[in-house]
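ARCHIVE RECORD
Type: protein–small molecule complex
Small molecule: zinc ion
Source of inputs: curated submission
Record status: active
Notes field left blank by submitter.
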Amino acid sequence: MVKVAPSILSADFARLGEEVRRVQEAGADWVHVDVMDGVFVPNLTIGPEVIKALRPHAQIPFDVHLMIEMPERYIERFVECGADYITVHVEASHDIPGVLDMIRRAGRRAGLSLNPDTNLAKVEPYLQDLDLLLVMSVQPGFSGQTFRPEVLSKIARARELRDSLGLRFDIEVDGGINRDTGRSCAEAGATVLAAGSALFRSRDMATEIALWHDF
Ligand code: DX5
Ligand code: ZN
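STRUCTURE (tokenized, with ligand):
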């Protein structure tokens, strides 16, 4: 069964607590939280104080996707606010082993993400240190973009590598995921689907998530 992680970037920001409860009630596996710094990506979203306020509204894991430069500066803050998975971008830090180690030493799950134009080879040296590989299927920064089908082969290759190395990290795909692209990603080997627009704009989030679980 593939896991589903609704991205609250597409939620109603005036009612975020309620939206996080709605995500959990709809049967989501994780809550995906997009953190942007206006430098790594040309957009600003939420930070640790908001995550801390939202944390009591759901018991499922918070999957925190850091789209920030030099994430090592803020790992402690994201640990304190209750993030369960903390994912950094391979393009955003000069010390990937150090930052992954900080996350794991704090008892949190460590994730590494790569942009659509970044080669899988960039993350290969770190695969054995990961709980999660987050494959971006759009250029990070905004919700509502179109899925880039060329990432399917990257997902398949990541899955092949994972299995051949006997590793167990999750492979999450993020950006432009809907019924069709989500199914293709699951078939290519993704184990987690993150999605904003398609889930928050669906008629019934629970029905949609149940359908995706079966991909
Ligand atoms: C994009 C974010 C995504 C985004 C997904 O930078 O990392 O998580 O919220 O939104 P959709 O599913 O609308 O592409
Ligand atoms: Zn994201």
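CURATOR ANNOTATION: The chain has eight helices and eight strands.
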